[in-house]
Amino acid sequence: MDYSIVITIVRYVLGTIGYWMILKKCGDKPYWAAVPVAREYHIGKCAHMEEEARTFTILTLATYVCQIIMAFLPDGSLRENLVSILLIAIGLASAVYMIRIFLGLCRVFGRRKLWVVLFVLLEEPAALIWGLSKKFVPNRQIEDFSKAEGAKLAGVDAKPLDKGLTINIQDRTVVDFFKKKYLLRDIHMNIPTGHMVLLLGGSGAGKTTFVNAVTGYEKARAEIRLNDQNVYEDYASMKYDVGFVPQQDLMRGNDTVARTLADAATLRLPSSVHSKERWERVKKVLEEFGLYAVRNSLVEKLSGGQRKRLSIAMEYISDPSLFILDEPDSGLDGVVARSLFEKLRKIADEGKIVIVITHTPDRVIDLFDDVIVLAKDNLRTGRLAWYGSVEESYGFFGKNSMEEILLSINQKEEGGEGRANEFVEKYADHIQEKAG
Fold first, then answer.
1. Is it the case that residue 146 has pLDDT exceeding 60?
2. 202 close to 227: Cβ distance less than 8 angstroms
3. Across-strand partners of 180?
4. What is the C-alpha to C-alpha distance for residues 157 and 165, in angstroms, rounded to an integer?
5. Is the same domain home to 179 and 128?
6. The domain spanning residue 291 has which CATH number?
7. The overall pTM is greater than 0.85
8. Residue 336 belongs to some domain of the structure
């Protein structure tokens, strides 16, 4: 009789019993303790170290795969030796992550770090003690969203505009470690041409995901229409009509301003545009953004404000109808930032739609027409808490500034008031009342 197999089975059963009770105490589904590989992930969740748990789970799976491969390789062969070396490397990495997770468990259960030594040397007995003893109680539970309901849905689609931007996002989802996760949900609005709109939301509220969905960079389950054209269906032609300026520019410092803009024109303008027309467009944009006098200067010699204007000009070269900017005032002082936003206001007044993300909106809020407020509901899904005029937003939230509005919807652990669900549902009622 092979006693090693019996010992392995006994250890596995004891470990399953111990971890079953630990998972149950932490508010997780205990049956995961009996599933190889998944067990490691859920233990990490109990330790509130989900990122480390994912890596540990992948390493555990890689260990099993290597062991299976080795079973089919000839003893002493080069391939077996290479897999053995890989297995050792994976084992060392696994040990590091296992120790991190056990340290996390010690913090959650309020126990001394010395327990980690027992977990490493005698994992199953340690798990049994923690699982069965009533003295071992976690100081916090894991968040289980499987049965929870998010804030109510408005469910009212915006009617398409002939001139303007119509956004109807049903949802944007991803599969995150075998689980379906909602990033955005129930976002509907019309933005007329000539409007400059502030996009406001705390960290993780879905601002970047929203922008990517609107521009078609990352498609959602949605219909996005710009001037009566479907952005998703007509993406090949519509991409020239949508400009997006990221927070970080990608310009080469040793190119001149004119050459940088000319290269952008080659990329952003349709190939049917003649070279003469392209250079005329470059010259016009240089003059519009006050860069003509420094057209022969190297990018690395520009001031912060000039560099920002060039970054914006690179996207504006295609004369887009929709212009989106992510923190264009980052790193700029108040006077320079004000000048930049005044330029964006003029662009909107020319019949464009300008949407701006900024962390300092109150210093230039008078230049905006409307504000979009995104907030994380109780399921951590990006939801629409307000879309409308700046003036009306103050009354809706009962606040006097954009900073106060942001604090009201931020989670309490982020220093906010934690009222996101309240305002998401209030806005849903507002929309249903208008539609009704």
1. no
2. no
3. 175
4. 13
5. no
6. 3.40.50.300
7. no
8. yes
